[in-house]
Amino acid sequence: MGLLDSFFDWLGFGKREVNVLVVGLDNSGKSSLLNYLRPRETQTDFIAPTVGFNLEHFVCKGLSFTAFDMSGQSRYRTLWGNYYRTTNGIIFVVDSSDKTRILVAREELQQLLSHPDISSRNIPIVFFANKMDIRDALSDVGVSSALGLDGVTNKSWHICSSNALKGEGVADGIEWLSSAIKSSLDQARR
Amino acid sequence: MPSNKREKSASRQYQEISGNTNENETDQTRPTTTTAATDTKSKWLSAHNDFVAGINTVGSCVELVDLYAEGSVNLVIADFGNILLMPKIQAKLKVFKEFSLLKENNLSDLPCAVVACYMDTLQPRIPALAVASGSAVFLFKSLRPYYKFVLPQMEIAQVEKDVWHKAREGNIDMRAMHDVLNDLHRGGTVPLTHRSLAFLQMTNTNEAHQFVEHYKTIELKRQSCITCMKKLNKNSADEDALNCLVIGTEDQHIYIIEAQAFTIMATMNCPATPSFLDVSGVYDVEFRILATCRNGYIYLFRRGSETPRNAIYLNSIAVGLERFGKNIIVGCMDSSLHCYTTKGKRYWKHLLPAQITAMCQIDYRPKGFQAVAVALANNEIHLYKDKFLVDVIQVEENIYAMKFGKLGREDATLVMITKNGGLLVKILKRTATFEESDTLHGPPKEQQVKIDVPKRTKLYVDQTLREKEQAENMYRIFQQDLIRLKLLTGKEFLKSVQAGLNPIAKTKNEAIRINAEVHGLGPRFKLTVKLQNTSSTSLTPIIDLFISFTYDENIYSLNPNYIEIPILITGIEYGFCTFVTCITDKVISDIIKVYVCRRDSSAPLISAVINMPVAEPNLSI
Question: Per the record, where are the segments of Basic and acidic residues compositional bias (chain B) (predicted)?
Fold first, then answer.
């Protein structure tokens, strides 16, 4: 079975469908990040604050991603919990230049990790320390310590600094996520 | 009402002040001590703790406003600087972005209020900052000095004018000048100018001479001081609509000033100097101004009237004023928190554990959460939702200023300035819920639940009507019956005492308790009579008593039926026995009465009635 699957993968058929959830505070750059992952011709220059959520599709490393671009405004944050059950991976975007609210991001992360649909499963999480181009932004290490990522032991996670407008660092994070999702799916099959 | 012309001359362009206002664009980042370990139970995230920020201010000088119309709210603080260095004034208008100082402007006098107001209709909506200090309001647009509004001048006594005029011409000596001004001051009809008051305070002749020389050529003015300032929407209730400024002054006036041309649109006469204002409504439609004054009153002003509509008397001087709809919440100097309606009815009063140091309103629209935060001298901040204490925040220092609102992009932040100049910022957690359960103050919540009272029936109404009409009659009948009952009881009691029928005999100095028991199944019973001398007053024993029985001789025979009682000593129980034989063969029973009698009296002392059991038949074998 596994041999046949990898053969199909290699051929490019039967791409496995995976769902990922894109979360983070408002104005952290979630929609911009997904906008960068779109094909060149459909990208937009103007990103408005998301209301509710948007769906985006992209392909990476033989996985077909369906990304739920959640709204980060505080009144919509309760919606995040509805999508935890079906998700295979989480993209957590942090505005590394907003030092006021890094604590709020940490609080939201704690809530996400303690949710019953998340805490029981090994879901890979990729953190984007976004807006690294802004002058006094925190580094990825700074964001990692501010979010208290050392305490996250039962999940595979990865952090990379990014600039969603220019696309720097975005591909790295998504590639890591694809491989992490693949390995977690393989693990689940065995 | 001062003329328009005078205002124009008083409010000159801000050119001359901007000379001494050096702008230093700073972009310094302080080391922040963000506490990583957040208390999971707390409803607040401690986002920023800087205990050495060196800010010295009060609540009215803190403002949260989106200064650049970019969706990120700045913190604006009018800082008093180091008060210990007075009279050198270090007051500064500081603008923070995130937690770092963005820009600061020097102020020429100690500020008393900062208000962000919209003074034009341009897009994007960029607000101006109005800083009230001394007798003027300084307006800053894009953080640059823009305009200075000066309060209208007040009347000066002609005598005082003449004195200074003579001083200018040099034909009055110091002593005469001092005497004239002193007489005027003692007379107290018209207050003197600050200049004359300062002159009168001088004791050194040389110093006074220099003072007069320096000031005699400058025009004599008398101006009031601003004590408080708030903003009022002019013609629309929108948040970014055009504003007017509402200013309370030391000379007991409240002015409403248009922020476009700086004309005084309305003047109100307050019976005392206002210390806090609260303004609601729209100027062109209807507005209300609440002013807490230094005489311990709250006055309510409305559109179109120069004098207050209502006055609420507080038992103490107010230290803070917040309003929620029609409820006024006032903190007082006697560490009490009151809630009044605008009509002056008091809903509740709480006595707080310590003095109030700062108050602010918490209005978190997304959750519909409205409360008042009261900072206390015991380093606690109490949050009151209606009358319920819903949260207590512990802080490390005394809080002297607080403001709740949007900061940066976060909706619910509480900015606090401590006594020693620290800047603290707390963020309300998204998941925080405030329950209206309060064990500290007032009755439990259940008491608020309305009882489902059934509808009044016709019978009930008739009955109440009858009770109303015949109240006197009913009362009289009731009293009559009560007295009759008492009389009957008394009579019966007397009768029983006289007949010795009760089990405890009580004469003047003798008290005997009787207790009779019947043993056995029959036909032969043993009857035990126990007597106890219970008199506690006298220790003299009772003598000369006997026991006798009355019974139906057809049914019972007693042996003996007469018992001599020996001496009865107080407290000891004596038992006397007799044997009762049932001599009838019918299955019946009867009573036997036991009498304890005194030898010299015919009436028994006490008696007891014994209900005899039915005797078993005599089994003769």
Answer: 1-10
